[in-house]
Amino acid sequence: MRQSFREVRARLARLNSCLAESIGGMPIIQVFNRQKDEQRRFSELNASYRDANMPVIFWDASLYAIVEALSSIAVALIIWYGGGEIVKGALTFGVLVAFIQYIEKFFTPIRDLSAKYSVMQGAMAALERIFALLDTPVDKPQTHHPDGKEDQDSSIHSAAGGFSPSAPLIEFRNVSFAYRDSENALDNLNLSIRRGERIALVGESGGGKTTITRMLTRLYEIDGGSILVNGSDIRSIPLAELRRRVGIVLQDPCLFAGSIEFNICLGDAQARARVRMAAAVVGADRFIDRLPMGYAEEVRERGNNFSTGEKQLISFARAVAFDPEILVLDEATASVDSAAEQMIQQGSRALMQGRTSLVVAHRLSTIQDADRIVVIHRARKQEEGTHQELMELQGFYFRLHQLQFA
Fold this sequence. Notes:
By secondary structure, the chain is an alpha/beta fold.
């Protein structure tokens, strides 16, 4: 019964996932006339869920039937044996009736237990899934440096921001990472980024640019090599401290239900004090001030009452409000129009002053003034230099530039 309930929970999860996905993608389903297909898919999952419940019902009914059969057999044995004793004169009829009542009272709690047994097994199967989630470590484990020596002094300098200015703030040393064992998303990457430097990552889609930013914040764990921040391996830095120093603006903006102010500060008291300043830096205050309730304007589910460009500006202001030491922009202007892009570029120049910036971009026009441009192609760093240097080299970057501006 426990195994049957596990299967029931797994199929119910698939059913709920399908339902949530269909509701979230309802406009796409309607535009492409896929209503009947989605209904058929839901019906198949629903039938699968029904079929998974059949063994549960069978075992539940079987258990109750077995208890009832044992109870009836016990009463029959009492009557058979007691009747014989009454004929012999060794037992009175009243004693026989009393024994029958005792047997009935004995089986009453057993019947109740059998009725609750399936409920208990269903609860146990559900608790297995709940405890599996609760047992997930809240923080990723800290490890030592690859050479086995923990540099506590550098960790202290890292936290205080007092590391030598001449040393790289971020350093990738022979970093490798693979989503699948047979294919590396990054292969032997070496990259040093100095404090206050603006680095742009360009290259074909799927080349590994976004993977670099994800590994910097330990959203992905590296397979080989090491990443150092202020001389400390990121695996030896507490995860909360590491991520507090890195501000990220992703290509797909994510907004939560609540006010615009909450979406910028995410409930952080220090960031709340910088909400209006952050919005002004990126130019988001221009459309926020026009809203009826301003910064208290309610954000509906997934921010569907704002345009994609407005959502991107809010997420950009969020990064500014948290005042990070390292700024990562992953195609941050991909969803805004030219006017909004210029506005963000003006705000980002002020934002990047005194900060180390890592910019992932496909629009080469947005990163031509970067201190260095790194070309990532087929999981490897192919070229590195300023815009002018790479154009004179006439390699990968030159061909990308020709494709966009020819």
